[in-house]
## 1
Amino acid sequence: MHTVILGAGLMGVTTAWELAKDGHQVTVIDRQPLPASETSFANAGLVAPGHALTWASPRAPKILLRSLFKKDQALQLKLRADPRMWSWCIRFLKNCTADRARTNTLRKLKLCVYAQQEFQKLVAETGIEYDGVRKGLLYIYRDEQSLGRGLANMEILRGAGQRMEILDSKGVARVEPALEASRSRAAGGIYCPDDEQGDANKFAVGLVDRLKTKGVAFRFGTTVTGFETEGDRVTAVVTDKGSVSGDQFVLALGSYSPIIGRKLGLALPVYPVKGYSVTLPTEGRNGTPEIGGVDENNLVAWCKMGQRLRLTSTAEFSGYDTSHTPARFAAMLRTARDLFPQGAEYDRPSYWACLRPMTPEGTPIFGRGRHRNLWINTGQGHMGWTMACGSARITADLMAGRDPEIDTAGMIYGKAAAAAAA
Ligand SMILES: Cc1cc2nc3c(=O)[nH]c(=O)nc-3n(C[C@H](O)[C@H](O)[C@H](O)COP(=O)(O)OP(=O)(O)OC[C@H]3O[C@@H](n4cnc5c(N)ncnc54)[C@H](O)[C@@H]3O)c2cc1C
């Protein structure tokens, strides 16, 4: 069985791993010269079931509306004449009821927990080095009011079994000594001891090295433009370097999945949500945070990766534009300097921006459409590093005709759309 995977981001390479294990002959196609060069390149690095809250919540419409008028928000909606953006937003708003937020969050959590277990198995099996740290993650709040709101939000995760420790400002500094000097900035925090962190790009590159030794073929620098089909089957992927035929196909193109999927009549509710990240050297510094976390008031995430500190922020609805200017990073650098004044060489930044493949529900999409041999693994949104290994296993199970090990309600193409429309 020859399976062709479209996309060598986190979803593509982890799916290649699972399928190779299941005995498929695998070819992976990507337009970039190296794996994980787009959204999986420089994300926040947090493997965070403890943060599996869905974005669509009863508070979200107000936050989105405010972003139309205030330019300095971490969340920014830029209205565009783009019907896909409008239909995505309508579906997002339908998911903002308390009931739907609860259902979607619990589904997301289940996938994140499962995916973390699969991730840990894969790391144990391969020994991939990815600057991983397994010491939990810290979510801090600047004032009592937001801490109270954070606790209320996290309660659903805690109720579902996620371990959490509620901290005052002293406790925050105990868990992360790099915050001792700036302890007064935080009213308190939530520590999730089972969360972890690491460099997703380094992991993906390490996995590709191992996949090559297992005979998986990679066609980098190759852009997918369409498909050849016969009846309800795809026979080949059309690329700028010729056609690649196969028995089965996996669509794992992140934010570009709906564009290419449309050529087969798929209507994937995935919209790009731009995020920004900056990476700073930390050699010789002793104020770098050891464990990753999020400043929940400023929506800035931090994560140490070996001798680097990664900061990320912002959710911008601005189509497929991935451009960035230094000014866009000023607020997150200010936040990081405030929390970790000695934490990094702030005057040596590497900037980056990319697109989260978001669904309105916050859960990904699996399964297939009219073409029976093209499988979907996309829409992991802001949590694809956390969800990757579980999503890959689910995809492999579905392709083998096995029931996935967790309930995939709301995540199967077609069925997910019907549930959202209800
Ligand atoms: C700022 C930021 C911070 C984040 N932080 C976290 C975090 O802390 N924790 C977490 O769990 N998740 C995080 N995420 C989310 C996570 O990074 C993504 O969900 C994940 O990387 C998506 O992986 P993917 O494989 O679906 O997409 P991608 O990594 O984008 O892979 C898709 C691949 O398809 C290729 N491609 C696209 N179109 C074509 C074509 N036509 N032909 C050939 N190849 C094509 C691209 O080159 C790319 O390699 C973050 C995302 C961002 C943007």
## 2
Amino acid sequence: MPVAQKTYTVAIAGLGKRGMHHAEAVAKNPRLKLAGVCDIDAARMEAAAQKFGVERTHADAAQLLQAVKPDLFIFCTLPQIRLPMIRAGVEAGVKMIAYEKPIALSMNEALEMYSLVRAAGVKTVVSHQHRYGEHYRKVKEIIASGAIGRVHTVYGHSIGWMMHMLTHLIEYAGWYNGGADPVWVVGQAFGKEKFADVHVSPDYIAALVQYANGVRGIFECGAGAPDVPEVDSMWHKCRIGAQGTEGFAEVLTGKEGKGGGWRAVTRDGIRSGPGYMDYAHDMPPYIQDIVEWLDDDSKVHPCDGETALKGFQVMMGAMRSVVQRGKITLPLGEGEPELEALQKALP
Ligand SMILES: NC(=O)c1ccc[n+]([C@@H]2O[C@H](COP(=O)([O-])OP(=O)(O)OC[C@H]3O[C@@H](n4cnc5c(N)ncnc54)[C@H](O)[C@@H]3O)[C@@H](O)[C@H]2O)c1
């Protein structure tokens, strides 16, 4: 007789756009039970509780977690709320915390978050879920097959600004580079308008990265980054790829009906195909990989928080480089909070 598989309980805090995407995918996964929801906006919380038939609700995530004691805590709040949510999850004894990018607002905050989860043995997953797109995967497959020869450069750019987009670009370029560690970064930035946004950012930032395997990374984010004219949707104008000794392969993020896809020049010729970013497509496998990592420690999630931390350090390192003028060696330790320091340093 087959052994019954465990059902994992889930609590979600932050029921805006991304929280609801997560809730939909959790509700559809037969191995997960949505046991509690939280939002400071009572109407949103009640609507989600009704929609998904959830009994436990609370405006305070820590109190909800103490009442529900879920296996998995998901939070999808804006970037200003990270450390208190991580602490609440650890104190409630959850097995895993899955949350939204960017990891934190500063390296100091990220270090504190990671020291809490590492000490408690809590697994973390960060939502860089674009990688589930077929076009993203096609580019990975071409690069990994060796069809572009030896990879010497990976790159990513987006006209969406830093705290929205940069860790996405770094995560997927790092994947195309086989997960090699970034070892140093130099950065440059300009513009202070987006320091007033909830995704606090310079208007533009560039980062040049050296990886341990000798590969160079080139990233640009914000107003002034190259356009992707093939895509007719501002947030989806992202181009991420790799160049090798015998060609290149790259993804254009895209949106349904607005362009996007993949293209490659390889030793076998010129190839291309369609694709676009689609939450409904990308979220179910992202959530299923969470279940599989909960089941089996060896099935580490592709969006593992430790990988995301490496990418986050590239972003924080680029800001430190603008402020300190020069090469920043990774991994980073504590330092002056990067966003505040950058805002002061920019003219
Ligand atoms: N991975 C992706 O593709 C992707 C796409 C868009 C946004 N994001 C990220 O997702 C995060 C959330 O973005 P969003 O667009 O869903 O935001 P949103 O504003 O739609 O939702 C945030 C929700 O959090 C709630 N909230 C605020 N403080 C809270 C608290 N203390 N406790 C509980 N709930 C609280 C708000 O009331 C709101 O309902 C951001 O970090 C953003 O960068 C990721």
